[in-house]
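BUG-253 | component: ligand-complex export | severity: low

The export step for phosphoenolpyruvate jobs runs without errors, but we want the raw record kept on the ticket for reference. Input record follows.
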Amino acid sequence: MRTPFVVGNWKLHKTINEALALVTDLKNHLASVKGVQVGVAPSFVAIPAVAKRLEDSAIAACAQDCFWEISGAFTGEVSGAMLADAGATWAIVGHSERRQFFGDTNENVGKKAKAAIAAGLGAIVCIGESLAERDGGKTLEIVDAQLAGGLAGIERASIDRLVIAYEPVWAIGTGRTATPAQAQEVHAHIRKRLGERYGADPADTIRIQYGGSVKPSNAEALIAERDIDGALVGGASLEAADFIAIVKAARSG
Ligand code: PEP
């Protein structure tokens, strides 16, 4: 039985004070919600304040990225150890916006995931095809390549800290969501690949989140699918009421 994991990706939104207001609201409303794991990913600069506010809560502070080197002349980057020191317990890597705007490659995503795990964090490895790739019948091929790169440095011993987020790029921030059946088809394929790499039983324990315009109105149907174990939520995670409704829709049991 996999505990669903719902993470809010706040992207380039929320000052520290705004982040604290939102997370305080979430903490108050989600304290008694069981059967689901919750995380929020503020900007790097808000992580320490958010993590401190969440100290007495089960909500995890997450990072939106993680550089692969530990230290050195890499202006603008943040290492896994620095993220852990700031209070993060998970790092999202390979988000499609990082791939699209900041040049993340499958190989780099693998290095980032490995570095996050080496620093003691969990890694949420994002994969997903563009609309042209889907229309060209290449969805599974793209997902396979991204998965192979993203998992290159992750051994079986660490899979309890591995989460995959399947996020079709055409559904991110567009209001267009994959149908539960479309998402389930890819999630089942991902689990099959995880089984080939780590063994069927271990692969059965790995959470695979869906991401792409998840809202209170579609969350329950998506997460009810057999291989969909929660959500990575962008836009709808910026409003407490919407995110709380999504978390509640994801509860298992
Ligand atoms: C995301 O950024 O990971 C995402 C899924 O965004 P949205 O929910 O806004 O589509």
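Assignee comment: Attached the raw record above. Residues 9, 167, 172-173, 211-214, 232-236 surround phosphoenolpyruvate (CB under 6 Å).
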